Amino acid sequence: MKKIFINKLVKKNFNPNQFLKLQKFLSSQGIILKKKSSINFGFEKFKTLYLTGFSSFLIIIVAFIIPIFSEFEPQVAKNLKINESNKKFKKVYEGGEIENKSKIDEGLDLSNILEDVFKFEEIPQDTVRLSATTIEQLFKDTNYSLSEVRKSKKVKPIRLSLLPNEIKQIESSTKRKNLFIQIILPLILEENSLILIDRKRLFSILNKNKNSKKEIAWLNRKFKQYGVLNKDIPTLKVRMDIIPVSLAIAQAAKETGWGTSRFALEGNALFGQWTWSGEGLKPKDADASEGHKVMKFNILQASVRAYQRNLNTHKTYKSFRKARAELRDAGKELDSIILSNYLDKYAETGIKYVEIIQQIIEQNNLKDFDDAKLLPSSKKLESLI
Question: How many structural domains are present in the chain?
């Protein structure tokens, strides 16, 4: 049965009666007349146009929103910048609780904190202890002198593993002090350089929106190394920092008598760190009831690293780390005199110990070495530094 729309047939003056007759006639012939609605918005005709417009609207909305989110993520990363004076850092400074309600210093594992120090003990030692005369000649041949360092601020990468036994026999105190400083200065600078390289990598990781598995694994190692059990970033940034060179030299001088003590010569112990369970040397005048020993090391560099890790992780030196972070936050240099005020718990003599350290720094002009740089021993190290 065929359908015909009446709109195509009907004129304006068409009689309705005629239409009925025509409709009845055509119906008998199998043809149906239908009146097409005069109200027609042409949806079928403009359907594609409507859909295209709606899709374009959605694309515009999405294009507008995406930049907002892409700018929001980097802003989150920017909030993690080093040593900002915010509430979280104040909480870290004060040793308060953080997100997971655990104390920062609870359950520190020395096997993790000193893992890289213990690795020095695994290295087979065939080091020959050089005499003081040989060492002095070596320094002369390489043009390595403290007067030159004070001028150029550059230190030759001469790393000695042991102090010379004859150092205690050098009568001139100036000569003895200079030799001691020349031996330990490259070691202190090297450890500081390694920490600065780590800090640079830490900032690089934190400024990224997304980190690789390798970077995350590195972060996890550093959390263990610095005793940050809860993986708190602000705590790691406060702890991962250098010790001023002048402060380290002064403490080593005080603890070893400028390299002449039994602990320094027999155990490579430059900083008098105590141990109750590890390898160590028993003080000769110690009571039998006293269980502590002075830690001993295979080489001098291990002692320097252990000392830095001690100040950077132990809860006793929390105020020291806070003061150091505040200096960083203010854009100031790490002043050894200021920071030494927070080491009154390093020795039993308390504030008297601090005064002695400050005297050593000032009387020997040790601040001259704070901005010294260790000359690289390789192209790779030079690019990192």
Answer: 2
Range of the domain at 348: 87-384
Q: Does residue 48 sit within a domain?
A: no
Statement to judge: residues 114 and 8 lie in one domain: no
pTM (predicted TM-score): 0.70
- All residues at 6 or more sequence positions from 295 whose CB lies less than 8 Å from its CB, including other chains: 267, 269, 273, 274, 275, 278, 279, 280, 303, 306
pLDDT tens readout for residues 263-294: 999 999 999 876 756 666 677 766 655 667 78
> Taking a C-beta distance cutoff of 8 angstroms, is the pair 176, 259 a contact?
yes
pLDDT for 328-347, tens place per residue? 999 999 999 999 999 999 99
Q: Are residues 207 and 295 in the same domain?
A: yes
We report the CATH number of the domain holding residue 354 as 1.10.530.10
pLDDT at 14 over 60: no
CB-CB contact of 181 with 237 (8 Å): no
Q: Identify the bridge partners of residue 33 per DSSP, sorted by sequence position.
A: 4
Cα 149 from Cα 147, distance rounded (Å): 5
